[in-house]
Amino acid sequence: MSLVFEQVSARFGRTEVLHEVSLEVPDGSIVGLVGESGSGKSTLARTAVGLVPVSGGRILVDGVPAGRRSGARSEARSGVQMVFQDPYSSLDPRMSIGESIAEAIAGRPSRGERTSEVARLLDLVHLDPGRAGQRPGSLSGGQRQRVALARALAGRPTVLIADEITSALDASVQGAVLNLVREMQRELGLSMLFISHNLAVVRYVADTVAVMSEGRIVEHGPAADVLERPTHDYTRTLLAAVPGGAPHPLTKETR
Amino acid sequence: MASATAAAGARPRRGLVPGAGGRWTRFALRRGGRLLVSLFVLVTAAFLMIHLVPGDPVRAALGTTAPTELVEARRAELGLDDPLPVQYLHYLGGLLHGDLGESIQTQLPVGETIAQRLGATVSLGLLAFALALLIAVPLGVAVAVATRRGRRQRTSLGFASGSVVIGSIPDFLIGVILVAVFAVGLGWLPVAGREDGAASYVLPVLALAIGPAAMLARIVRVEMTSVLESDYVRTARAKRLPARRIHLVHALPNAVTATLTLGGMLLASMVAGTVLVENVFAWPGLGSKIVESIVTKDYPVVQGTVLVYGGIVLLVNTLVDLLLALLDPRSTIGEA
Amino acid sequence: MRALRTPVGAVGATLLGLVLLVAVLAPLILGDRATAVDTDDLLAGPSAEHWFGTDNLGRDLFLRTVVATRLSITLALAATGIAVLAGLLLGSLPWLLGPRLGRPVTALVNILVAFPGLLLVLCLATVFGVGARGAVLAIGFAGAPTFARLCQTLIAGVGSRDYVAAARIAGVGRVRILLRHVLPNIGEPLIVNATIAAGGALLAFAGLSFLGLGVQAPAYDWGRLMQDGLAGIYVHPLAALAPGIAVVIAGLAFNLTGEAIAGALGVTPAVGPRAWSVPVRTAAPEMPAPAEETVLDVRDLAVSFPGPSAPATPVRGVSFSLRAGESVGIVGESGSGKSLTALAIAQLVEEPGHVAGGVTFCGTHLQDGGDHDDLLGTSMAVVFQDPMTSLNPAMRVGPQLAEVSRFHQGLGRREALARAVDRLRAVRLRDPERAAHAYPFELSGGMRQRAMIGMGLMGTPRLIIADEPTTALDVTVQKQVLALLATVRREHGTAILLISHDVSVIGEVCDRVLVMYAGRIVEEVAAADLRDGARHPYTRALVAAVPSMTTPLDEPLATIPGQPVDPAAVPPGCAYAARCPLATDQCLTEEPVLVDGVACWRAGEPLPSELEKEARV
After folding, report:
1. C289-338 residue pLDDT tens
2. Least CB-CB distance to A12: which of B6, B11, B13?
3. B173, B210, B309, best to mutate vs chain C, most C CBs in 10 Å
4. How far is B14 from chain C (nearest CA, A)?
5. Could B276 and C210 be called an inter-chain contact, meaning their C-beta atoms sit closer than 8 Å?
6. CA dist B170 to A73, B177, B274, C4, Å?
7. How far from the centroid of its chain's Cα atoms is residue B80's Cα?
8. Which of A140, C31, C390, C471 is a Cys-bridge partner for C27, taking CB atoms 3.0 to 4.6 Å apart?
9. Angstrom distance (rounded) from CA A82 to CA C360
């Protein structure tokens, strides 16, 4: 139940945006991935689900290499699912939320199985299963992110990738989604790659933290170590920039 | 999302982008390349057109009563008996020397016929294009400013329905109406032809310009309205600049950029309009020639005329793009 | 359908219905009479018997025009059908083939689109031969590139949405995604364009038949009738004009219907929190004279917008003031009215938004009807959220700064530009000369935001209003921009009004914090006390919901149940009562006012979650 990036490279046109990135998401743990825009963290996530082709290295899911080409069906079933940033773009506006979730259910379930599985998943993310017939239009941003989470879980993923899932949400709603993420991990033993630009959010959910800059992982270790005793200069810069102050003494100098 | 990441990666993170001038040159080269490809497609399509005609084009052109020897002779003259690749090479070779072939009907060189008539069509088209711009841009801007954020609902409705109505009238019908009123009814202007100098231009130019002007004014208004809602216009308001400056210096150039992108299409529709309008006014241009040639199945003339029309449109589109790139440097990066 | 309720839609739909009805019925009822030859009455003018006169065989032109409806409409619809189908196929190919194989298809379509439609029609008419069938094929295929381009654009738009990515991850094939997710979501614009294209095809047919390249005798459509009539235009113009008018009416029917549907589908509400520009002036209320050093004094500020049923009031009576050099933050969630408050203070709320209440800036009542452009232009600066869109993309950066001085301080072009470069240096842009000469897109986000602040420094600002100035920026850049604001404040004594959703950003920069909920200030608290000294239950929940670098990891984050208040239907009593764990009957009926820095009947009482925590400890 793990996701391993082995020296993964990726390029857009002539620009290499990932340089031999190696990272492991071990079974049952949440790995936080932080970095600024353009650092390549979203691209790394997209290589794992085949939305971006890799130009070098390989990705192992449970020790089995995921296909190198994008969009291959085999790879889709390899057990990596993803939740996206924008709650308004991640659900098909013309499909009921039940249908959206059902589409992602693995295998070929019967109609009855499908209905009960959708109900179970909605219940899991604390939404009323009676709302399965509703369109996304009648849901708030936070509720949409719950549906997106339920859809990702429907594929019974080995590993879940969460790409900035709270950055488009209001503060009060963000708290509820973060609580849900922690609850999922506790109760389902989910492995997760949790991507965010917000260090406080990552600190709250992640067991280990990887810091990415310009297509490379510059530091990776237990969350407490990386965030309180950073070894890399870039990590220090990031921590120093957190508004409101970080526990690390470095931040005092910035005031 | 992937493209967003790519854009973010490509965006200059530190320091300025070097060499703004080089970027325009690269853009011009790319556009030039595209023009060449397009011209090649045009030439090939024009060449193939004659071969797609079902049956024997020469027989079709000369009629079923024409003696077989004459048909054979014409076929040989036109080189239609050679294998297709050979014909194609001959055709391309001829084009490079400005040779567009000979008319099946009159046996006159096509190039000469076109040269005689090109001036009449181009002058008509350019005048109408200029007139359409002169009407549409100020009108569209004025309506957009007057009706922004839901003001003056009546003006807005009047402009919208007026422009739709005018846009729904075909050019040639406008021509017919203009003739009926100003030439036949009032007798102010000549009915047809090009012999009366400036006076003979008035009605054809109007007939050609009014429809596209209505269409363009709508586009300008829509673009201007959305530009007036943009963040940078809000910034300009926050600077407390005079309204004139906000509208003319901050909003208009951005609206026109977006409008000109569609301007190529406008020009294309005006070229098509010349064909119809020339027929209404018996205008001695390419438009009346191409229709005549299609009816008489004079394929080499049709071929040559299509090439000239198509070439003009492609060339003007390219020029518009290059001009835009000078006015608004952003447009050079959109398609890399 | 909503589209039909607009006047344009109603007219269009009625016309279209009539045209279709005539197309179906006219040939059945009038077909024979329209072909009846009357040799006694050739080329007659309009009369009681023949409304539009007769043609060269004495046939009634009115009847012929009416009967021609069916053929004209059928041909137009057939050609539109071909155009849409061929365009859809061609337009879907790049999606089905993937980026590498799809690129040549896209390039080909781009080339084809550039050719004038009528020219393609003429080429194809040459190939297919003169006649109705050839004309249908010609007009149909000539319309295909436009539709192909439209489909490509629409499909690419939907294809980049995250739900399509999610379906791909879930292993749904490309064809199935196209059918299930993409096509249903591009259907509406496609139908709208097809309707408008049908109008276009109608005109094209009329043109082609008019040129003698379309319908051939004895069949007749409107174009054919016009061509026949043109010969006699000197004698009676109606023969040529009548079928022309029929073309226009039918074309209008299609166009208006299409436009109306498009309008109804693409409705973007003209009102909303992002409303700005020309201020609406109302009589200033009686205002107490503000204290000497007060830069900004806001009294009972309210902003409302007309709504479909009742007016919405996103800002409902906000009062506060700023002293010189003071830094005050407004914090709140989306929909709290914080950004609109900022715009109203900056006199940038535009019609139909209505601003009530009074704003006094540097001792001047801004709503007294006078011209305050020079005062506001030089003394009040506004920095907006998105530096990517807030600078004019078609203008170099330097002149954008310089125009402030040219219009408000009377500097010449050269002096103003020199000052712009100087100001860009003051906001620590590296190489300010070059930045002044650059277009905005050549600068990074952080550099643009510096340039925006520099723009504010062209005058001598007493107040900078910064609306989410760092939300679009990376944390390291955010830190630099916030530091720059602090420097400006220190060096120029400028007051700062910072609007943010981010409690920690506000805490870092501000002396004092105003917390907004549902258009009102619910609490006013010193920034230092925000985390531990807040008394309003909303403020406390908001602070507790956001994880910081010191949040304990073993407890769940606080959450706020329920939904924010709809500004068109604000309940009586406290707007937060429905979500508040402390709410009593009084809270539901009586609205608390801001007293002693807090607007709450139960301010400072412990929340249930806090009691729990204590119990556990």
Report:
1. 555 588 999 999 999 988 777 788 899 999 999 999 999 999 988 888 99
2. B6
3. B173
4. 7
5. yes
6. 52, 11, 12, 26
7. 32
8. C31
9. 51
Kindly report the nearest CA distance between residue B73 and chain C, in angstroms: 23
SS3 A219: strand
Instruction: Quote the tokens at residue C536.
Output: 């309003």
Angle at C384 between CA C382 and CA C385, to 5 degrees: 155
A71 at the C interface (CB within 8 A)? yes
Which pLDDT value is given to residue C522?
94
Please name the residue of chain A whose CA is at the shortest distance from the CA of residue B4. A38
Residue of A nearest to C554 (CA): A204
User: Between C210 and A225, whose confidence is greater?
Assistant: A225
Q: Which residues in chain A touch residue B5, judged by CB atoms under 8 angstroms apart? A: 12, 17, 38, 40, 42-43, 46
Residues 6+ apart with CB under 8 A from C475: A36, A197, A199, A238, A241, A242, A243
pLDDT digits (tens, 9 = 90+) for B41-97: 888 888 887 777 777 777 777 777 778 888 888 777 777 777 888 888 888 888 888
Determine the Cα–Cα distance for residues C328 and C321; give it in Å rounded to an integer.
Answer: 9
Please check whether residue B182 is in contact with residue B207, taking contact to mean a CB–CB distance below 8 angstroms.
no
Instruction: List the helix and strand counts (H, then E) for chain A.
Output: 10, 10
Determine contact: C394 vs chain B, CB below 8 A.
yes
CA distance C9 to B275: 33
Question: Which structure tokens are listed for A127?
Answer: 């939404």
Length of chain C: 617
How many angstroms separate the CA of residue C503 from the nearest CA in chain A? 8
Cα gap B219→C409, rounded to integer Å: 37
Give chain A's end-to-end CA distance (angstroms, integer): 44
* A245 contacts C549? CB cut-off 8 A: yes
* A192 contacts A31 by C-beta, under 8 angstroms: yes
Residue of B nearest to A11 (CA): B6
The per-residue b/e assignment along B139-177, b for 16 or more CB within 10 angstroms, e otherwise, is bbbbbbbebbbeeeeeebeebbbebbbbbbbbbbbbbbb
Predicted complex ipTM:
0.83
**Beta pairing, strands C463-467 & C495-500:** parallel
Q: Does C241 touch chain B (CB under 8 A)?
A: yes
Chains linked to B by 3 or more Cβ pairs within 8 Å: A, C
- Tokens 């032109």 sit on residue: C61
Across the interface, do A81 and C169 touch by the CB < 8 Å criterion? yes
**Cβ distance B240 to C374 under 8 Å?**
yes
How many CB atoms within 10 Å of residue B191? 17
User: Which of C100, C160, C162, C477 should be substituted to probe chain A, the one whose Cβ sees the most A Cβ atoms within 10 Å?
Assistant: C162
CA C418 to chain centre: 37
